[in-house]
Amino acid sequence: MTSAAAPSTGVAFQELVETHKKRVYYLALDLTGNHHDAEDLAQDVFIKAYRAMDSFRGDAKIFTWLYRIAVNTHLNRRRKKAVRNMQLQEDFDRQADDSGALPDTDEQAQRQQMQSHIRASLDALSPRERSAFVLKHMNGLTIKDTAAAMDIAPGTVKSLLYRATRKLRDELAFYRDDL
Length: 179
Hints:
The protein has 179 residues and is mostly helical.
């Protein structure tokens, strides 16, 4: 790379980060389940994207490419790490930090308990099921874009989504009575 090309690459990368940082962060948050890990994952995604900018062929949309980097990075991390046992404590700490105090109404407490159940149910999914579910239903990607982001066939995405939805429905069945 010549010195004249470096500034334009830096500007292009800065635009890439500014345009996609929120979507990448929220995807990372959905995949990891906590703020700290989401920040680390999002940072790693952009570092990897910067290093691979020259190899981006344009076959996919840029956000699909970033999502694919995020999912692959997350799956690689999960393979290397043991399951976190501190999730409930982190959620408790985050609730106290967000509001400055613990929930003071029954409705807030019920909402937070439901969010905790949903997060626990998502954690019970396999990494691939969770990734497919998060990309499709929480980030609004199409089946085709989800497949591209995960580097799998669309039929595999449909299968993962079916299994994830079935597991989540079973895990959260006790909420049906409340509805």
